[in-house]
Amino acid sequence: MRRMALVTLVVDDYDEAIRFYTEALGFTLVEDEPRPDGSRWVVVEPGSAGQGGGLLLARAKDEAQRGRIGDQTGGRVGFFLHTDDFARDHARMLAAGVRFLEEPRHEPYGSVAVFEDLYGNRWDLLQPAAH
């Protein structure tokens, strides 16, 4: 069986990224281990630990990487956070200060709203329509 395990997200600071993803988005901190080069191996997942589909939060190492923070997908939605209760998660995220770029929409494929993470990367909060 094959599955996508991690996607790297370049961040400015480990601790501020961990706070945002765990507190504002409700992710689980799965790993936070120091590495010999002074970096850290930091993994967060949107569900329970071990379910996969996590983010490797990687602190930018140079100017080229710093230039990509917040714009890793050229300004388009690059990340999709599925939920089983759109209204609950939308309200919780708003209360936590998450910046939504639009009002919720109800499309044939589900309920959706675009939001930005703390660096400006665009995400969809999406509750897929029942089939």
The assembly state of the depicted protein chains is single chain
Give the ordered list of helices and strands.
Answer: EHEEEHEHEEEE
Give Rg in angstroms.
15 Å
Proportion in β-strands: 35-45%
Cα end-to-end separation: 25 Å
Classify the secondary structure makeup into a structural class: alpha+beta
Shape: globular
Low-confidence blocks of residues: none
Biggest sheet details? 5 strands, mixed
Strand segment count: 9
Mean model confidence by pLDDT = 93
Helical run tally: 3
**Helix-residue proportion:** 10-25%
Report on this structure.
This protein is of the alpha+beta class. The chain is about 20% helix and about 40% strand. Strands 5, 6, 7, 8 and 9 form a 5-stranded mixed beta sheet that branches.
Quick synopsis:
By secondary structure, this protein is of the alpha+beta class. Helices cover 19% and strands 38% of the residues.
